[in-house]
Batch of 2 targets.
Target 1
Amino acid sequence: MPVIAVIGAQWGDEGKGKVVDLLAQKARMVVRFSGGDNAGHTVVNPYGEFKLHLIPSGIFYPRVVCIIGNGVVINPSVLMDEIAQLNQRGVDTTNLFISDRAHLIMPYHTLLDGLEEESRAGKAIGTTRKGIGPAFTDKAARLGIRAGDLLDKEVLLERLRFVLDYKNTILTKIYGASPLSLDEVYTQYCQYGERLAPHIRETTIMLEEALNREELVLLEGAQGTLLDPDFGTYPYTTSSSPLAGGSCVGAGLGPARVSRILGVFKTYCTRVGGGPMPTELKDETGDLIREQGHEYGTTTGRPRRCGWFDAVAARFSTRINGFTGVALTRLDVLDTLPRLKICVGYKLDGNTIDYFPANVAALGRCQPICEELPGWQTPISHIREYEQLPLKAQQYVTRLQELTSCPINLISVGPEREQTIMVSSIL
Ligand code: IMP
């Protein structure tokens, strides 16, 4: 059985949660490999509607083992709330495991995320303020505290004493904020440790065993390709890699084990936070897409910036991830629009270009060159067969497929599991 990496192909919020929940029916393991509780994966299934931030979207199937991989940064308090909420609604979480190598979000990370954003003033990134950037900074700076450290109180105390001293200097001397108390943070994290201990494991062994048994494993991405720190619109990016390449490092398996890479694209673009977005619509069409698609952040509630499908960005995303197939989501959101546009190139300083510039200032000056297609203007959420889609919807999908040069495996026409059109096999 293959390993399928499910990757956000745009700026996040593409509907990865729904796709993973759907594919997990046949899977034995789902591993979240990047990000933290900046993510918000909406899943609608027979249990109801859920907004997951840390727990893999396979959790609704009792036979599926769910792993929060080493590449994720975990806020233990958020994780415990999420576990409690799922349990209250009848979802079992015994099969949830956390890599002992996953780094923890500490109270100073969330504080510093807010303080750093405020100090950037007009140049703020528009982060989710969940402490993600500061936690990954500490990981790289060798100042992090990991889930495994919670299992040994002495190690935790020693590590925390050293790091907190340093963090308190920054909080007080640079930002004029109050210091954090070692006692309080230590006591709180000891409690988290006691509660989370049954879930903390050396998860790569579990993953290897599943692979050796040839079970279907899903690698669940968070955020999207254009938020990647290397390839996204730097510095308006997140702090861990949402790419297919990142899935191996963040889950703990070799690249040759990944057999399919499914890129999840919305039929239009959205982004939250700062940074350029060439196809952004600051008009009533953008507002209409936002309202039809309920495009408000799952984690922060912020209105998402909406725009046309950007095929230049999509080709870039396909190239750097090596997508073997595409899951196209939210086709139904475009149901009422009379005309649809697809961006096929950019005009930059008088020249036509067909690539996604690395420089955000240049990307910010790019004007989209668009093709126009007629809308289908009829509801499609009830349709389950590709051939039943209105011809104009098929034409739109076919054009996206041509432009991305990648087969479309499935199309989502609504938030529920069954509101899906299987076009071709993912495997
Ligand atoms: P951070 O990841 O909270 O540091 O935020 C950095 C950037 O990534 C900001 O523009 C956020 O809005 C964006 N971002 C982070 N997580 C998500 C997500 O799950 N969906 C969409 N945008 C996200």
Target 2
Amino acid sequence: MARIVADLPAKADTQRKILHIDADAFYASVEMRERPELRGKPIAVGGKANRRGVVATCSYEARKFGVRSAMATSRAMALCPELIIVAPRFDLYKEVSRQFHQIFRDYTRLIEPLSLDEAFLDVSDCPRCCGSATLMAEEIIQRVRKEVHLTVSAGVAPNKFLAKVASDWNKPDGIFTISPDKVAQFVLGLPVCKINGVGKVTAKTLRKMGVVTCADLQRVPLAELLKRFGNYGKRLFEVARGVDNRPIQPSRLRKSISVEHTFPQDIAELSTMLEAMDGIVAELDRRFDKIAKSYFPVKRLVKIKYRDFSQTTREKAIGTSGERWCDPRQFRQLIEAAWPRGAQPVRLLGAGLRLQPCSPEDSSQILLM
Ligand code: DCP
Ligand code: MG
């Protein structure tokens, strides 16, 4: 009798234990921790309305009024007139993030930060809590509450995709586990808009195809998904079945660096935009300088947000003629080429560099945080 020997990876996907931890209303919760008089009130962390700021995040009390991240502060104030606007303090949030990571390190070294308040942990090999990932997540929630005085939500699942969906399931201050034997059933009812990367446009395309849940998505052949969505079609095919083999990447590489500026008033004249770019590019130069030993830039890019909030970007490969990375003239040219696409006054301009690590050895050493 012939024996079939499968070439399996050390740990099959269904055997991994992945946690996704995400702090609740992060910046706002930190501010409320620091300033008790703000507790229980609708607050938003961000820029002031009269300076055309945007909301970075807001307390759950403010969310009841419809206030959301990335909303113009003026609109947030219209929705919730008693909203208290608090200026962000990034150094403080970074410090809190370090405290989270200190706790995470008691469980695993395989930690992939997504932002200051969010991380994946691969706890497959952690012997704590009798090896139960759910108990580890509960313990982490308790420790953050006791040691950092904040609440976080946790998702527990056999892969990153499901762990991220799960951490959102019982948010705030919640935990949700999708055990390997429940995956097939769970994804059937999962709306496709919960899939990371499915924004408004993709959701609309899918809806037109009659796809609302992952059960619907499972019925679409791979060939059709590839035709409509390119490479992303393959990912849709897999996640619809609860499959996601992406490993935890402890050292995430920077892919780009950028600086953006929202102006107090829209700029109508192209010449004024070009002048403003010089300041933005100078700041980019300063920031890039700090990481210049580890990365080299391969492209320059600019971003324009018009009065009506539509936006455009343009990028161009950096030549080999030895020109400066942050040559203001090069960025000016990109703006001159990009601005006519919308040809309206602009509210925001940005400049950036796409990066590559200087050497392969660097790739394993450069940490985002
Ligand atoms: N953030 C931001 N701009 C955005 C979204 C978020 O500056 N458009 C910042 C502020 C948040 C932090 O990142 O506090 C974390 O983002 P989350 O999406 O996790 O949002 P919150 O932690 O604030 O809320 P939630 O309870 O939904 O996780
Ligand atoms: Mg959060």
